[in-house]
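your task:
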Amino acid sequence: MAGICAKLPLARASWFSYGPLALLCVGLLAACATTSLTPVAVQPELVKAFDLTGHVSVRVEGKGYPGRIHWQHSPESDELWLYSPVGSGIAHMRQDASGAVLIASDGKEYRAQDLKLLTRKVLGWDLPLDGLQYWVRGLTWPALDTIEEQYDANGRPKLLKQGTWQVAYLDWTPVGASGLPSKLDLSGEGLRLRLVVETWKIDAPVK
């Protein structure tokens, strides 16, 4: 799927010093134009592949890590780009059946079995990607038992508890697709993550 480019807001702080990856990411973003998408109605359970961009904020051990995210997901692989609030590249990550790789802003490459291990080692926090790929679509993670589910007046998930994780759905008005969350708050295992999706591109039948 084609990537989505977004204009990055100005803010303070970055997680890593600028490096080759940062310059590459900024160059790529500068070459992109903002994409205007017409929303389509989808059923979350039919979305097998997606491409999203938005804001992400991670808090762990009293420290906050704000930034932006571009995530391309398919049943076979995941590829993510993390940026600081000012638009410098933090990390480029990929995970598939062969394992995971993370390229930091200084150009160093790290490999492991999965991205959860890599993000803990390099970024200082766990990225629960295996569950997040379901939660971001408003779905339960099949690998965990569901403890509690709450729904809003429109029948959409409002609160989901699975294992040690809790997902609160705060908004459902993203650009690109209706029927998918645009803001969620994830907490568990010492981590709190808030994701605000600005744009969705999806590979699924429309209603």
About this structure: The mean pLDDT is 83. The longest strand covers residues 191-203.
